Amino acid sequence: MPESYTLHYFNLQARGEAAYLIAVHGGVPVTRNLFSDFNKDLKEKCPFGQVPLLVVQDDVSGATAHIVQSIAICEFLAKKAGLIPTSHVEQAIALQYVLGVDEFRTEVYSQYYSGKETQQAKKEWKEGKMKFFLDKFESFLVGNKKEDRDLFLVGSSISWADICLYDALVEQAFLLDEDNLWGNYPLLKKFMKQVENSSESFKQYVTSSSKPVLYMKNWRQ
Amino acid sequence: MPESYTLHYFNLQARGEAAYLIAVHGGVPVTRNLFSDFNKDLKEKCPFGQVPLLVVQDDVSGATAHIVQSIAICEFLAKKAGLIPTSHVEQAIALQYVLGVDEFRTEVYSQYYSGKETQQAKKEWKEGKMKFFLDKFESFLVGNKKEDRDLFLVGSSISWADICLYDALVEQAFLLDEDNLWGNYPLLKKFMKQVENSSESFKQYVTSSSKPVLYMKNWRQ
């Protein structure tokens, strides 16, 4: 049945961007409400009081459903966007990676808000958890690599796991503001380019200036 | 195709039990390897170095796949167990609740390891985040309640979200060791009984003495 989608989030990439990237990749029309003031009315519509929130409207009956939790929204839109692998095992592996990417993001936000002096916090991040996770993601691409083919986390075509990883890597690259961040990660670097070029609408969006701002700019300054 | 499943986890309920409960509920045969020593060989098989790990073996080819992250394992087994709602919207809402239950669990483990004096930590938990989450879950049951029907988080039949919530509530009840914990939550209390009685194999397992021990026993002492 025909449905309309509205994605509510702060005017930031952070935990709201991956869902939108998935929709853009698959040509799923999603209207965004990007706000700077998270007002009470909206907050009350969110089951756990948090955004992102996806409002799904049935175009025939007008009935609406509210979906929260970024990963639940991403998986829902990935089904509409054709970005879910076909077998149950590959579906589970995709979700496993999405959950791992989410941990990576939770860890960096936690370090960012640790109260530590900026340079010290960045140094610890880069030598500790960031290295752990980037080593892991590079190794997953190595493990799933086949000759003469693009790089994917799961199976042999792009899935929502790839988009979620791409989104987190864009944030890392911004955050650390270092051209050589990818020096130790040749496959991750290649992977990002391949994801960027994997759909015309996606490429157009990610290279446009219409994206919300990235998070945690203080680390970059 | 026929598959065999082995679930590896510490000899504890914690983050390993919900997956097993889902399998038991749906009659999916899962062998468990419950260990006290997380050895290096097994750790190396886990993509992020963490359990739970579900090993899926194709009974024809003998090929194996490794799935980690408790929520990915739960969703995979829920598909085999017939515990996934039918529509995309209800599937997303189920996952949203599973992710919320996981946050609830993460918060209590974090408070448990906060280094605060036991009674103080428990008091803060009960008056803060525990109250927040139990109020939420009670309200979700109220919101989805229909006359003359059992209580479910999503739709009108039991789903993996209900099993995951049940599992977390069992842990809470143990943890706080208070008969009156459910005084403010009549629907959660009723819900737990209904989940327990919703499948013969499930009821048999949860009332047996063959379950692993519960986590965080210090708060109970």
TrEMBL record, chains A, B:
InterPro entries found in the cross-reference section: Glutathione-S-Trfase_C-like (IPR010987), Glutathione-S-Trfase_C_sf (IPR036282), Glutathione_S-Trfase (IPR040079), Glutathione_S-Trfase_N (IPR004045), GST_C (IPR004046), GST_superfamily (IPR050213), Thioredoxin-like_sf (IPR036249)
One BP annotation, GO: glutathione metabolic process
MF terms (GO), sorted A to Z: glutathione transferase activity
Span of domain GST N-terminal: 3-85
Ranges of residues in domain GST C-terminal: 87-214
UniProt xrefs under CDD domains: GST_C_Sigma_like (cd03192), GST_N_Sigma_like (cd03039)
Name of a matching Pfam family: GST_C_3
Signal peptide: none
Protein biosynthesis is among the record's keywords: no
Domain of life: Eukaryota
Keywords: Transferase
Gene3D superfamilies (alphabetical): 1.20.1050.10, Glutaredoxin
Stretches that traverse the bilayer: none
Designated name of the protein: Glutathione S-transferase
Source organism: Naegleria gruberi
High-level lineage: Eukaryota, Discoba, Heterolobosea, Tetramitia, Eutetramitia
